[in-house]
Design goal:
Length: about 240
């Protein structure tokens, strides 16, 4: 197995033990991306793994460029792969290093590795968005466009949480409206954003998912404009 350690480089880990356990790690299951572009994949983990070392693993050796960012406050690490090529299409695993090595098997590391994502790279992605990082403001609405090449059921889901199917629903007390009126695109509107609305979501259609990170902030106050007083010049 080839794994990249957070803040490290992609390398072969010879002494690892792969543990299939409960859903301690959660990610999307299949994404598509444009060749030459980039993709960010979030991996949600349970609080007990906050200080653990995080990995991205794959089944074959590669020298591609990977970046891993660990947001310990939200228990999610994000893998970004840049300069995607068709040969990058493969299965990838989110993984964390656990605290207890299995000495009986004489392995140096104990790796919990269970969330699998399949990445396909092509000219026109089957499902994509304008930007995987979007920002909204407290109390306001936010609309995301999800472009898809199929006519399957459209969904908007919170990573590790509920989904909205059909035209309307609610996720964590935030109302969600899905509009399918245009061919090849459906829009998702999150109504009256709250602080709790921040986090990783994904568009879903016909088995494909596209992760989107939503950040909710307070709108900055408008700058005060000083009143301009016109002074007449004496004749």
């Amino acid at each position: 197995c080839i794994c990249m350690q957070i803040h490290g480089t992609l390398k072969l880990l010879n002494d690892v033990f792969l543990v299939a356990g409960t859903r301690s790690l959660v990610t999307v299951s299949e994404v598509s991306a444009k060749a030459g572009g980039s993709i960010s994949i979030p991996c949600l983990y349970e609080p007990q793994y906050t200080s653990s070392i995080k990995y991205l693993c794959q089944t074959w050796k590669s020298e591609k460029r990977f970046m891993i960012h660990d947001d310990q406050s939200r228990q999610v690490f994000t893998v970004t792969i840049t300069d995607l090529q068709p040969q990058d299409a493969s299965y990838y695993w989110c993984a964390v290093r656990t605290s207890t090595p299995l000495k009986i098997l004489k392995k140096k590391l104990n790796i919990l590795m269970e969330s699998v994502v399949f990445l396909s790279c092509q000219g026109v992605p089957g499902l994509h968005v304008d930007n995987q990082e979007v920002k909204g403001f407290m109390g306001e609405d936010l609309t995301i466009s999800c472009y898809c090449s199929n006519t399957g059921e459209s969904q908007w889901c919170r990573l590790g949480g509920p989904c909205v199917k059909g035209s309307a629903g609610e996720i964590d007390s935030t109302s969600v409206i899905i509009n399918n009126n245009h061919d090849g695109v459906f829009t998702v509107t999150m109504k009256r954003l709250r602080t709790e609305s921040s986090g990783w979501y994904f568009c879903a259609s016909e088995g494909l998912q596209m992760p989107v990170h939503v950040t909710v902030e307070h709108r900055p106050p408008m700058s005060e404009c000083s009143t301009l007083h016109l002074i007449k010049k004496p004749h």
